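Why do we care about 3D structure at all? Because function follows from shape, and shape follows, mostly, from sequence. That is the central idea of this module. The next example makes it concrete: a single protein chain, its amino acid sequence, and then its structure expressed as tokens.
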Amino acid sequence: RSSALNCCNGWRSSGPPRFHPMLGPADLKAFARRRYRDALVAIVEDRSLFPLRVPLGSVPTDDLAALKEGNAALEAESVAHLGCGVTVTWSVTKTRLFNEQRVPVQVEFHSEGDYGRYLKCLDEIHAFRAAVAHTRRELPALLPWMARHPLRAKDKISVWPDLVQVCRHFIANPMPGCYTREIRLPIGSKFIEEEQATLRALLDEVLPADGRTEATDFHARFGLKLDDMQIRLRWLGVPPAGNPVALPDCSAPLHILAQTNLAPCGVFVVENKTTFLTLPGMGDGWLAIWGNGNSVPACGNLPWLRECPLFYWGDIDPAGFQILARLRNRLPQTRSALMDLATLEAHRTWWGKAGNVADTYPDTLTHEEKALYLRVRAESIQLEQERVLQSWVEARCSSLRQQVSDGQ
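And the structure:
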């Protein structure tokens, strides 16, 4: 078989060896799809990829049946037969064994139209060309990004003019200091929020260094306001003397709490509201935080948590252990509470089926936590924290409070 064919056309043998190295329909389709990105890049760079020569491979002139079969297959993919596809140049050649035979000498997609109709993507190509023309007219600084990421740009063709419009607005109004919905553009009210990933890449391309920050959050990076999450707190005893938050149960924006040192002597973070409301008293200075699925960003942004004992209590399921691991990444002193084998086995009656989560192995778990994580993942086990008996919770919390008092 021809090594050139294997390299250029991706043809592979299956079954007994047979001399049939000539370009086949599957090879032709695969070649055309591989060159689609190049065709889009050529449009961005204002040049033509066509005519696009297709590697033909070795013509089997010593095997008449294979030659005729290959010729027929190639003819079936041609403009002459389909009205699109490849243009085949033929020649009559005298072969060593079979006298004069008709053989292909060149195969090419002659035009963008032949190529696009063959792949059934001509409308998409035309839309991409229109988007490039719009970009060249309205914001040519985006063209290099389109050339590097033509497939990503193609996937956003339906909203591309709006993306360009938003980029032009940020160039004219860098770091605007407003909410996204205050930006007065003729776009959907949720458009910027929905297209954050693409807009971040585009804005990084066109904005100068002083038009953005190094923050990873989209809003902070481009100077936008964000409605800060509300964090609910509950004191599990008497607040420390002179504490700025003396209410027994209250909520406040995350950024306000980050600037207010509550100086707790111990903190419980829980995900479930019922669990949050029924945590037993832990003594003066103990605080509960309702994570509500936002434990990691909430607690990770509260500086006063870095120096105090911190316990996380979530569901005993894969997601619960992953949250614990991420929280421990931000706050290494985090300890798990009521997320152990004894608690799981004592409440077998209330086991449920865990939902599917990405297989993110939590490296920061302890040996015992890892073992339980692997088990509940393998067996799809879930014990929701509100299912744990209150008497069990009170006994364990009393033990944890004593450990903290003893400096353990």
